[in-house]
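[step 3/7] fold_predict: job queued, chain A
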Amino acid sequence: MGDRNERGPATRRRRTTISGEASGTSARQANGSKPGSHGQGEQDAAGAARKHKSSNDGFKDRLSCHRLQESLLSSESGYSNYRGILNWCVIMLVLSNARLFLENLIKYGILVDPIQVVSLFLKDPYSWPAPCLIIVSNVFIMAALYTERRLAVGTISEGTGTFLYCVNLGAILCFPSATILTLNSMTPVGGVFALGVYTVLLLKLYSYKDVNKWCREIRQAKARTLSRSNSCPSVHRANGNAVHSHVTYPGNLTHRDMYYFIFAPTLCYELNFPRSPRIRKRFLLRRLLEMLFLMQLQVGLIQQWMVPTVQNSMKPFQNMELSRMVERLLKLAVPNHLIWLIFFYWFFHSSMNFVAELMQFGDREFYRDWWNSETVPYFWANWNIPVHKWCLRHFYKPMLRRGVNKLAAQIAVFLLSAFFHEYLVSVPLKMFRLWAFMGMMAQVPLALFVARFLRGNYGNAAVWMSLIIGQPIAVLMYVHDYYVLHYGGVSEAGTA
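[step 4/7] structure written:
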C-alpha cells in the first residue's frame, strides 16, 4: 500500500508531461471544469475580431473599389501572358491562308509537278554540268592542302604560299562563274547550287589558310623560346572505337582532317572541333524526315502559289501601273515570306543539325533569336551564325587590328555580303542588274535610321517589315528583267 501510494503521484506527473490530453483530464478531475475552456475563449475572441475586420473590409469595399494600377496591354503593367492572343493570331493566319489556298486551287487547279523540279536542275538528262562542276572543286581543296604541307616543312616561303593561295581562291571565285556563263546547258537553279558550294568552299579555305598561318606563327614563337613543336599524336582506341584525340600543328594537315572540315557545318576552321559523344539515331531520323517533308512543301508552295503570282505581276510592271504594282507586291509578300521562313528552318535547323549529328560536330549554334531583333545589325549577326562568325573572325576584327574604325569595318562587311548576294543571283541568271547588291547596301541607312529613331517593339516591327517587303521587291525586279531579256517581252498573263 505504501509503495502504491508513493508511485501514484509520480505516474500522474509523468503522464501530464507526456500528453496534453492527460493534463486536460487531470485538470478536469482536479477542478471539475471542461478541458480547453480557456483556449475556446481565445478562439471566440479571435473569431469575433475576424468577423469585425471582415465587416469593416466589406464596408470599405462598398465605399471604394479602385486602386492604383495599369491596363494589362500597357507596357508599364508588367503583364506578359499573351498566350490567348498568340493562339488567336495563329488561328486567323491559318484561316486566311486556307482561304487563299482554296482560291488558288479553284482558279489554277493543281500546279504541283515533281517532274518539273528535275528540269530546273537539268536541261538534258545526259548532261549534268552542276554536279560535274562540284566534283571539280576537289582540285582546289587538294591545292590548299598541299600548299599548307609545303609551308609547314618550309619548302616554300610565306610570300610564295600567300601568292598560291591568292591564285587558288581567285580560281574558286572565277572558274565556276565563267563555266556557268559559257555553258548553255547550265540551268539557273543548277548554277545557284554550284555557285553556293564554291562560295562556301572559298570561305572555308580562307579560314583554313588563316588558322594554319596563326599556328605557324605560334610555332615560331615557341621555337624562339626553345620550345619544340608537337607532332601528330597517334589515335588511341577504346572499346573498338577511335577516340577523338587532341591534334596539334602540323598533325592536322591530313586528308581526313581537311575533308572533315569541308563537310562540317561551319565556315571557321579549328584544329580540334568540339565533338558530341555519340550519334543519336532518333534525333537523326527526325531531322531527315523534316528535311524531306519541308523540301517537298517548299517546292509545292513555289509551284502552286508563287509562280502564278509572279507571272500575273509582269503586266502591271510593264504598264507601270503603280497601284497594281503595289497590290502585286503585297500579294507576293505573303508566300515569299512563308517560303523563306520554311527555308530557314529546313536549312539552319533540320539540314545543318542532320549533318552535325552525322559527323558528331558538337557546336550546334547555327542561329540565335533573330526574330527578336530590334536593330538591323542584330538580325544580320544572329540569323546566320556560321557566316557571322567567319566575318567577325577573318574580316571584321582583322580590319580593326589594322586601325580601321568600327563604322567603316561594318560597312565593309555589308559590301562583302552585298557582293556575294549579287554574285549568287546575277551569274546563274546571266544578267547583271545589281538589285541584290543595292538591297543589301540599303540595309546600312536602314540600320542607322532604326537605331536613331526606333526602339523596342517599333524597331522589331521595322526589321520584320524590311524582311517581308524587301525580298519580294528584289524577286519581282529579277523576274521582270529575266523575262524581258530572255523572252523579248513580258508574258500576257491575266491578273489574279
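[step 5/7] annotate
The CA atoms of residues 236 and 273 lie 17 Å apart.
Strands lie at 237-238, 241-242.
exit 0
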